[in-house]
Amino acid sequence: MRELKQEISKYIGNEVYGIENEISYVEDKVLPLYDTNIGGHDRDHIVTVILRSFEIMAEFKLALNQKIVLITAAYHDIGYKKDPDNHEQVSSEMFLADKEIQKFLEPEKVKITAEAIVDHRASLEYEARSEYGKLGIFC
Questions:
Q1: Which residue, of 17, 23, 93, 121, has the fewest CB within 10 Å?
Q2: How many domains would you assign to the chain?
């Protein structure tokens, strides 16, 4: 699955080297957790959402933190098999329980990422709290 880095580089060019470790972690530790997800929330869907997030970011020249974009997209549906109806909250909690992925982010970015994971849902009944949550709605 090492092509994820190559695919992301189509949108951010050489800047991909600044998030190599994060991409490797997502490929090795996060994406395999989607192999047992159901209802179109599998690994292929997550890779599509990751790439679409970077595509939108590039297309609209959004100055967003690439680590947050990657991690939010990677975690947004991870809780689906545990609780489909509340998967965004469960996904955020699973992100917060993963202390290894959080090492890639400054403490204030952890909170933003956790909120963006919750806010990604297109049927959200309130406005997303950050640009990262808004980006997820369109993916």
A1: 17
A2: 1
Q: Which amino acid is at 37?
A: N
Residue type, 9: S
Contacts of 132 (CB under 8 A, 6+ apart): 64, 65, 68, 69, 72, 112, 113, 115, 116, 119
Place of tokens 């680590």: 67
Q: What is the pLDDT of residues 74-107, one digit of tens each?
A: 999 999 999 988 899 999 999 999 999 999 999 9
Distance of CA 61 to the CA centre of its chain: 18
How would you class 91 by CB atoms within 10 Å of its CB: exposed for 0-12, middle for 13-18, buried for 19 or more? buried
Q: For residue 7, what is the domain's CATH number?
A: 1.10.3210
pLDDT digits (tens, 9 = 90+) for 12-56: 999 999 999 999 999 999 999 999 888 788 999 999 999 999 999
Domain that holds residue 7: 3-137
> CA 112 → CA 2, 17, 49, 59, distances in Å?
27, 23, 18, 23
Tokens encoding 139:
């993916």
